[in-house]
Design brief:
This protein is about 50% helix and about 15% strand. By secondary structure, it is an alpha/beta fold. The protein folds into two domains: about 180 residues, Rossmann fold, CATH 3.40.50; about 190 residues, 3-Layer(aba) Sandwich (Rossmann fold).
Length: about 375
Amino acid sequence: MKKKILISAGEASGDLHAGNLVKALKQLDPQLSILAMGGDNLRKAGANVIIDCSDIAVVGIVEVLKNYRKIKKVLDQLIEIVVQQKPDLLILVDYQEFNMKLAAAAKKNGTKVLFYIGPQVWAWRPNRVYSIREKIDMMAVLFPFEVDFYSKAKVPVQFVGNPLVDEVKADKKKNQLLQEYHLKPNDKIIGLFPGSRNSEINKILPIQLESARLLKKKYPSCQFILAVASTLNKQSLEKLCEDYSELEITFLTDSSYNVMSVCDSIITASGTATLEIGLMGIPCVITYKISAISYAIFKRMITIDKIGLVNIVAEKAIVKEFVQHQAQPQLIVEEVSKILEDNQYRKNMIAELKQVKKKLGLAGGSMNIAKLAYQMLEN
C-alpha cells in the first residue's frame, strides 16, 4: 500500500520549506500520498493541499483570539483527518502553537510525529520543551545550537541543515530582472517586505509606507518595490497603498529572492525573511509591531534580546531592529539613509551577513529532512 503523509504548514515560510521537502520526498518515492495544509509551494511540489493556510496566518495573542473560531475549525478538520485516515506520518512545519495541538491529537491516535523547524523554546517560554517531548517522535532543527538545547531535555532531535543555504538565490540575472520589473538601473531601489500574514500587514505596512514617503522626499529618484507573499492578495495590497500613489510602488509576486536581488536596501518585517535577506547579502532594517497587549505579554516571555533571525544566528546586532514603539518612520529612514550613503557602513554590514551564511553550516537541508521523514516511514 502507498505510504500516506499529512503535512501541516501554517504560513508562507512554512509552505516554502514544506514545498521543498515534498519535492525531495517525491524524488525518494514518487508513489507517496501527501495531504497538506499549506499554500502554492506545496501545490506546485505535488502535495494535495486540502486546506489553504492563508486564512489562519496571524501573529500575536490578541490577533489569534480574534480569529480563534476560524483557527479552531481548521485544527478540528486536521484532527479528523488524522483520526479517520490514519496517516503513516504527520509532518509539522513551524506554526508552533497550532501544530503542537495537532501533535498531541496525533500521538493519542498512534500517528508518528515529525516536527520540522522546531519551536524556538530557546527564545521564549523554555519550559515548553518538556511538554514537547511527550507529543513528538522526532524534532528536526535548522540551527546547530538547537541540538544541545533539545538534547538536554531528552527530546529526540536531529540537525538537518538549514534549507535556506541551498534555496536562497535569484534564478535570473539582475539586469534581466530590472527589465522585467521595469526599473531604472541607475536609481536606488528600496524593497518593502511587510510580511506574509494579514495581521502583520495591518500593523507593519503603514509604518513601511510612511518611511517610504519620507525617503521619496529625501531621494526623489528612488524606486520602491513591494514583495507580495504567496499567502497574500496582490489587489488587496494595492488597495491598501492607494493613498501613496506618489511612491509609484511596483508590486511583485515573483520569487522573493529575485525581488531581493535587485534591491539596494530593504525594509522588512521580522521573520524568516530577515534571514533570507541576510543570505542574499542585502543590507536591511527590521520592523516589527503587534497589538500593545500581545507585545506586553510577549515581552515578559522572551528570553533573548534580539528578534531578527539574522541577528540571532550572528549572536550580535548586524541589522538594526525597530520594534513596537521604536518602529517609527523617521528612525527607519535614518538607518536606510545611512545604508545608502555611508559606503563603509554598507560594506561592513554585507561582510557580517556573509559570516551568517557560514554559521548555518550544512547544505542539502531539504533532502536531509526528506531522508529523515522517509526513514521514519520505513521504520
